[in-house]
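As noted in the main text, all predictions were made from sequence alone. Below is one such record, for 3-oxo-isoapionate kinase.
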Amino acid sequence: MSDMDDFSRRGMRESRDKGPAYAFYGDDFTGATDTLAHLARAGLRTMLLFAPPDAARLAMLGQLDALGVAGAARTMAPLAQQQELARVGAAFATLGVRVMHYKVCSTFDSAPHTGSIGVAIRTLREHCANELVAVIGGQPNLRRYCVFGQLFAAAGADDDRQAVYRIDRHPTMSRHPVTPMNEADLRVHLQRQGVEHVQSIDWRCYAAGDAALQSEVRHRLESKPDALLFDVLDDAHLQAIGRLLVRRAAVAPLLAVGASSVAQAYASALDERTDSSARNAAAPLTRARGPVFVLAGSLSPLTEVQIGAAHSYLRVELDPQQMTGGAASAYLAERVAAITGPLRDGRHVLAFTTRRAVNATSVTNAADTALPSLAHACATLLRQVLDAVQLRRIGIAGGDTSSFAVRALDAWGLSYLAPLSAGVTACRLHADRTELDGMEIMLKGGQMGDAELFEQLVDGYAVGQNIERQG
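Prediction:
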């Protein structure tokens, strides 16, 4: 064991003795729950909160290995995003975290005017003394890959027949109505958001071993880049990156940017140093013991497939124009009644925003397009449904739908419960209201999950191939 290895081990252990060594901010709620799942399944005691914790909350939670804050930065304009992240960064720094993770979507969809990763880097690095800002460019278990700085992503249902596209040719992400990914080179993508000097560590560096990778990183840092972008093609690459992050974070707190692959890399490095028996087995989600409600605000093609396969549910359409129009209150009241009546009778209900009201010039796209008016309307609908009928399991589809809807609830956090499929996790809601505390909740992005995901939420899901890919 090298002196650096010994120093990094002591540094990370001392940090854990004082507070969580790892803290992450999720730029939407769905991705944040995926990061929560990876850390929890690695045996790290982790909580996901909806705001930075105060002293009383921290005392109640007890010793944590990792802490997350779920937010909605991917929908924010630069000033609001900067204000949000300055508050979060200061809170994380006060806790003494060693790795500060800004969790982005695995497709890196963002823009200078909305959810800017550049704003996040400039804001959060003020709270990290380490000269390394690491951008992790792929997440293989979700079939997201970065090679020579170019991002690739699969599209379609989560199976082995998925086609993989360069992100600027991806059938969904290249056409995102707010943050289309029209540039595959993540260095250029970040430069457009103000991260001007980005260097790339390509995948060939990992094969030469840890010492060579450390040397290459030191060499690159001599030119003082704003960030280093790390290629990722497989789990072995993440393990090499994780060892590097842990070593460097022991010297000074560092900022890492990327999807849940950052957590995967970090956890894999710790697992090499600890008893692997601490890792949590992927316990299956049991069958629902009462009616299940799903709110689908995403218009992604995959979510449409999942809606079509949801045979156990009564389906209730939600018209985006009426939900946000002048008579929205009356329309929402009528839709809430159409949902809560069957739920009281013990039926599963799926409410979904319909495509027919959406066209190329419409200003009322689904909540997953980051338009706040519809996201707020979906949040109001969920709150009214839960005020009217007590449920033990719900699901929300759509990144922005999830962020706004969960924030509208009188709750303060989530803990890991069980996996459903790659990128989709069932969590336990924590709230001061008795009727909400302990509710099981699934949050999923538009591009995530198996075709039968909503059926799995009802039936439960035994550990299988897709869950294996999540770990």
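Residues 6 and 15 are 14 Å apart (CA to CA). The first strand starts at residue 22 and ends at 26. These features were considered when defining construct boundaries for the mutagenesis experiments described in Section 2.9.
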